[in-house]
Specification:
25% helix, alpha/beta, 29% strand, Rossmann fold
């Protein structure tokens, strides 16, 4: 069985038991630099005192207090390039430096700023496509107190249970998706605006999505 990694971003730090359990049980914990302060404030509640230090703090370090940087200097990975955000720096580090990863859970990707939330969640589609996560057997999810988000790049089944809220997003306006297991079938949806396949509901334990062609798609479940 592969290793699990929790990446902590600088959005809303999770308060509910399930996302905190994902941090508690992760083999590796990676903090984006601005998220390290929130992690240190909460790690005792998750692990019990004195808590558990992150394995890596990564980013350009523009959001990290100098005192924290000095205290945890041996865990810092400074990446100064500004072409990508700290989440992407963290994902690249995990994929390049940690062997046998099978699960990456991103926490704190949403909240505080809407632009960061939209950007971080849309990056799930970029990662799935550019890093060939499915072919490499790596499952990536963004989990918050309110939802679980993940990307698909082609047709497939989602084992999610009945009665759950589901929203579907894609930047490919030519994509068509036939569905089963949803209250409102997506067969006729033209994805020319973000709201077009949102606020749907599952009416079967397994939802099947059939893509007209391979394309990155974002799924958000409650």
């Amino acid at each position: 069985m592969g290793k699990s990694v929790a990446i902590i971003c600088n959005g809303d730090f999770p308060a509910k038991p399930y996302p905190r359990y994902l941090i508690q049980t992760a083999d590796f914990i990676v903090c984006c630099d601005g998220a390290a302060e929130a992690y240190f404030r909460n790690m005792g509640k998750i692990f019990g005192e004195p808590g558990r230090q992150p394995d890596v703090i990564i980013g350009d370090m523009d959001s990290l207090k100098p005192s924290t940087a000095k205290k945890f200097g041996g865990k810092l990975v400074r990446v100064t390039e500004q072409e990508t955000n700290d989440l992407t720096k963290a994902v690249k580090h995990v994929l390049e430096e940690i062997q046998d990863v099978s699960q990456i859970t991103i926490l704190g990707a949403s909240g505080k700023r809407e632009d960061h939330t939209i950007g971080n969640l849309s990056l799930l589609m970029t990662y799935a496509k550019d890093f060939n996560l499915e072919e490499r057997g790596i499952r990536m999810e963004a989990v918050s107190d309110h939802s679980t988000a993940f990307a698909m790049t082609d047709s497939g089944e989602i084992h999610c249970g009945t009665g759950r809220s589901m929203s579907i997003f894609t930047a490919d306006t030519s994509l068509r998706i036939k569905s089963s297991g949803l209250e409102w079938a997506t067969d006729g949806v033209v994805f020319d605006n973000w709201w077009k396949a949102t606020l749907n509901r599952t009416n079967a334990d397994i939802v099947t999505l059939e893509f007209s062609h391979p394309a990155p798609v974002l799924i958000i479940l409650d």
